[in-house]
């Protein structure tokens, strides 16, 4: 599953909550033009499409596969004769089009009269991934190091690893637990001039080192193991991209079309409530799976 699946699911959630109409989609000409002048860019739409655009509209790439390709433009002028629209290039901090770009040739653009752009949704997904998942939900994984250095006892670990929970070696037929600790932003074992995540182990010998680790979840990668990741991330991304940046928000809906539907002012609360309910249910499942050791005190 790719990152764009998160964007599509987030947009489906927003549509389901009635936060604005589904944005119309415009056809772009076979040669979109992409004439750049300072901070502005001219984009040629397909014949007749400029009639659907007005100054002040926001255009955004349809189906952008990454945040870097999710261009956004703010319309400053429309030429109905040539179907050329002039836009602020790279609006909202999105990647600007260059003169040589063919980004939109034969493509499609969202016409955003309401609701967030794909670029804003990508940003929201990144915020959720980096700040709202760990330490509540995570991935437990087993790793091995084939020939650890007894001299240093240091092993470079993946950047996503947040904790080592167990370490052991097999000596003969016996499992020997190995003392350990973990360092972040430490000199790499392979390249000391680079910083990274390093495990330090009191090794028994140079035989294979086995590890159990706790890792941060990575969107676009870990859905095969945890299919619920898409729904959990998309719920929070929908809230953030729509302006409900805090769970305790009581912000009222600002979109006129949503008010006309009689939407209650607690849509943000509903999105966050659903997010927290799913995340905590998942966290409980992980906690039960991880509770495999019991400390017994005698005396």
What does this structure look like?
By secondary structure, the protein is of the alpha+beta class. Among the domains are: 24-113, Thrombin, subunit H (Beta Barrel), CATH 2.40.10.170; 139-215. It contains five helices and 13 strands. Helix 3 (228-241) packs antiparallel against helix 5. The longest helix is centred in the C-terminal third of the chain and has 24 residues, at 267-290. 32% of the residues are buried. The model is unreliable at 248-265 (pLDDT under 50).
Quick gist of this model?
The protein has helices at 3-16, 118-131, 228-241, 256-260, 267-290, and strands at residues 25-37, 40-45, 58-61, 72-79, 84-89, 108-112, 139-145, 154-157, 161-171, 174-177, 180-187, 195-201, 209-215. It has 299 residues and is an alpha+beta fold.
Describe the structure using short key phrases.
single chain, 299 residues, alpha+beta, Thrombin, subunit H, six-stranded antiparallel β-barrel, four-stranded antiparallel beta sheet, 5 helices, 24% helix, 30% strand, elongated
């Amino acid at each position: 599953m790719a990152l764009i699946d998160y964007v599509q699911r987030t947009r489906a959630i927003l549509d389901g909550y009635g936060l604005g109409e589904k944005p119309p989609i415009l056809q772009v000409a076979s040669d979109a033009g992409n004439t750049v002048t300072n901070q502005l860019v001219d984009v040629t739409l397909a014949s007749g499409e400029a009639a659907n655009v007005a100054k002040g509209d926001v255009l955004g790439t349809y189906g952008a596969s990454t945040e870097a390709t999710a261009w956004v433009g703010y319309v400053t002028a429309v030429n109905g004769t040539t179907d050329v629209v002039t836009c602020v290039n790279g609006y909202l901090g999105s990647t600007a089009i260059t003169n040589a770009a063919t980004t939109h040739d034969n493509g499609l653009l969202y016409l955003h009269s309401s609701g967030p752009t794909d670029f804003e949704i990508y940003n929201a997904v990144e915020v959720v991934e980096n700040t709202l998942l760990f330490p509540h939900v995570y991935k437990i994984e087993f790793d091995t190091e084939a020939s650890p250095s007894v001299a240093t006892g240091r092993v470079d670990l993946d950047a996503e690893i947040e904790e080592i929970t167990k370490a052991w070696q097999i000596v003969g037929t016996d499992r020997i637990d190995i003392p350990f600790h973990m360092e972040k932003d430490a000199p790499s074992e392979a390249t000391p001039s680079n910083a990274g995540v390093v495990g330090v182990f009191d090794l028994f010998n140079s035989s294979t080192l086995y590890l159990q680790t706790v890792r941060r979840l990575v969107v676009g990668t870990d859905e095969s193991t945890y299919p619920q990741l898409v729904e959990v991330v998309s719920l929070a991304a929908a809230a953030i991209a729509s302006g409900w940046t805090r769970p305790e928000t009581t912000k009222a809906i600002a979109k006129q079309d949503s008010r006309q539907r009689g939407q209650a002012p607690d849509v943000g609360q509903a999105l966050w409530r659903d997010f927290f309910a799913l995340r905590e249910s998942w966290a409980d499942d992980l906690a039960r799976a991880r509770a495999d050791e019991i400390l017994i005190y005698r005396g």
